[in-house]
Amino acid sequence: MKRVVVVGGGNAGSIVANKLSKKGLDVKVIEPLEYHLYQPGIIDYALGKVDKSEITKQTSEVLSTWIKNKVTKVDLENHTVNLANGEKMEYEYLVISAGVKSSHPQGFPEWHSLEGAEEIKRQIDNFEGKRIVIGSYGIIKCPAAPFELSFMLKERFPKAEITLLNPVVSPPPIQKPMAEILGKRSHENGINVIRGFKISEVRKDEKTIFSENGDKVEYDLAFIDGQIKASEEFKDLTDNSGLIPVDKNSMKVKDLDNVFAIGDITNIISPPKTGAIAHFEANFVVKSILSDIYGSGKTRFNGDAACAVYTGNGLGSFIYMNYEKSFALGPNKFFANLKTKFGNMYWRTIRGELL
């Protein structure tokens, strides 16, 4: 029986582990956390639209097999991973889906953890000011997330002055359909988007954010998404971006036929790092491993990603993207409802029961 070691039990890792386990493979998942977080639901939770129980479940509820531990090193030469308890685990196939860590710029709450979500919710619930600023540093997970948060904060605080600081002057061509809808909806919602604003300094005592060009924006409440990179234990595998380089059509690391990286930890930034592309990457790697074992031929991953995003005032849009093309639909109420309802479907997808 072939052994597959999956490092990380998040969205992508859970799909790989559960689907390969159902095929009779010996799957070992290394995951240090006792709970699984539905990250796209963080915004809904922070704005009080869902309960915490709707975006979290015990890891044991979503994984068919699970080892509570932490990987400290990946040894590609010897086909092993080192664990925090001193053990070494051999693999025949390795899938690295450990996610990323996000910096906490200037003490702002982290956007992609349960602890960060709770702090964001606390600050929103206690907000009594007027000026809200949303921004980000460098590479973040999903470029639509700051827009979504801005739209939902405008719904919550219609009289607030909301400014979105975007470090990118112009989106890459593949993202233009998405950017056009988000930009149009920002204008319609009265949100001021400042493109090319690269944050250089935050003076929290003055509640002022400065750009590299010397521009400044004042705030009463601000949420700044931190730049992402792989955790220290993967430093031997990362490139200058701090992420693991992969062949985008095979998801393989260093051209090794038995080592894959998927999800946020890869150096693929277009399509953006969403749960949708992680899901499709996971499905592709499942097929690749099974094809390699049973000799059914090689396939190529084309970067498929599709998701619904909130665009304010009860509306939503649908975004599809791959390596070559993209389109955006909406906005309308149907896609907003689709985004909301997918939270319930999510738990079935990561168990390998759906999609």
From TrEMBL:
GO molecular-function terms, A-Z: oxidoreductase activity
InterPro entries registered for this protein in UniProt: FAD/NAD-bd_sf, FAD/NAD-binding_dom, SQRD
PANTHER family in alphabetical order: FAD-DEPENDENT PYRIDINE NUCLEOTIDE-DISULPHIDE OXIDOREDUCTASE, PTHR43755
Residues of the signal peptide: none
Organism in which the protein naturally occurs: Candidatus Acidianus copahuensis
Name of the protein in question: Pyridine nucleotide-disulfide oxidoreductase
Pfam short name (any one): Pyr_redox_2
Domain FAD/NAD(P)-binding: 3-269
UniProt superkingdom: Archaea
